[in-house]
């Protein structure tokens, strides 16, 4: 019985560590996105808004700030989703016996959505971190705007 108890405690510890680590990854990513990414976005916005060869409507760069806010919100949701999942899908939450059978299915669906949000948040972070360089082509701006806006909507 002692060995089984040890294994159970070890599994619980590994599970706790996993969820804690994932929580911290997203809290830290959010900090980086706030402190390092925001100045880079502002630099790109200034370059875009000063690109006189491009129509004024397309030079307007508020879509970058909107996408950045969506990214920060998604990081917060992701961090908290790990805290939620830890309690929801462990033995900590009391559920009716009739609902207990649904938990494994709910866990798979939840983790799939969580993974998709993580993937898209990472893509959005990379797109927003694109190097600030003088804007030359309107098509380039429109493509970046479209990709960024789509990812912001997805997250």
Question: What do you see in this structure?
Answer:
The structure is a single chain. The protein contains six helices and no strands. α3 (62-88) packs parallel to α6 (138-154). The chain has 155 residues and is mainly α.
Topology:
Blueprint: H1 2-49, H2 56-59, H3 62-88, H4 97-100, H5 103-128, H6 138-154
Structure characteristics:
elongated, mainly alpha, single chain, 155 residues, 6 helices
> Total number of helical segments?
6
In angstroms, what is the radius of gyration?
21 Å
Distance between the termini: 47 Å
Instruction: Kindly state the number of beta strands.
Output: 0
- Proportion of helical residues: over 70%
Chain-averaged pLDDT:
90
Q: How would you characterize the largest beta sheet?
A: none
Report the portion of residues in β strands.
under 5%
Write a concise synopsis of the structure shown.
81% of the residues lie in helices and 0% in strands.
């Amino acid at each position: 019985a002692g060995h089984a108890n040890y294994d159970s405690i070890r599994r619980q510890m590994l599970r706790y560590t996993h969820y804690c680590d994932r929580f911290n990854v997203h809290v830290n990513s959010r900090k980086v996105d706030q402190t390092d990414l925001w100045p880079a976005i502002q630099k790109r916005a200034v370059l875009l808004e000063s690109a006189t060869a491009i129509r004024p409507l397309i030079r307007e760069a508020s879509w970058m700030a909107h996408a950045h806010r969506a990214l920060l919100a998604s990081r917060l949701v992701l961090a908290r989703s790990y805290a939620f999942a830890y309690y929801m899908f462990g033995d900590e939450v009391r559920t009716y016996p009739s609902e207990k059978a649904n938990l494994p299915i709910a866990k798979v669906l939840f983790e799939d959505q969580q993974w998709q949000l993580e993937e898209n948040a990472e893509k959005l972070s990379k797109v927003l971190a694109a190097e600030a360089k003088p804007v030359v082509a309107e098509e380039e701006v429109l493509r970046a705007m479209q990709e960024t806006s789509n990812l912001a909507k997805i997250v």
